[in-house]
Amino acid sequence: MNWDDASEKILVTMLSHLGFSVAVERETTADGLCLQIMMEDSKTIIGRNGDRLEDLQYLVNRILNKHFPDAPRVKVDCDHYRNEQEGKLVEKAKVLADKVLESGKSVRTRPLNAYYRRIVHNALAEVDGVRTASPQGQARYKRIEIMPA
């Protein structure tokens, strides 16, 4: 069994043990493999602000890396929730960058996990006149400061 088959099996097994009957579709994205959970009532799997999806993704990757140490990171999504959130996040970050360019003053995002911080940093790297920074530390959720360049 290869790592992508194993990652799908891990996810389906976990969800079945939790009492869910789901279909999982594999998608190839710019970030690599994404396991898309397809089901009727997706709110239960997604959780509040996607926190359960984050937890599922973390567990799938931990188990996968135990058996396939060289396997790349796998993204877990449900009914394209993360794609929608990422699009909204990029738009919000660009609005904040415009505010910085207009006012000349720094602004901060809401607290974001590492994955979402990376998306914001990458999206604003293309914007002339602003730069971004994340604070150091062990906190799971951190704010990004968007500053004039």
TrEMBL record:
<dbReference type="InterPro" id="IPR001374">
    <property type="entry name" value="R3H_dom"/>
</dbReference>
<protein>
    <submittedName>
        <fullName>Protein jag</fullName>
    </submittedName>
</protein>
<dbReference type="InterPro" id="IPR015946">
    <property type="entry name" value="KH_dom-like_a/b"/>
</dbReference>
<dbReference type="InterPro" id="IPR034079">
    <property type="entry name" value="R3H_KhpB"/>
</dbReference>
<dbReference type="InterPro" id="IPR036867">
    <property type="entry name" value="R3H_dom_sf"/>
</dbReference>
<feature type="domain" description="R3H">
    <location>
        <begin position="83"/>
        <end position="149"/>
    </location>
</feature>
<dbReference type="Pfam" id="PF01424">
    <property type="entry name" value="R3H"/>
</dbReference>
<dbReference type="InterPro" id="IPR038008">
    <property type="entry name" value="Jag_KH"/>
</dbReference>
<dbReference type="InterPro" id="IPR039247">
    <property type="entry name" value="KhpB"/>
</dbReference>
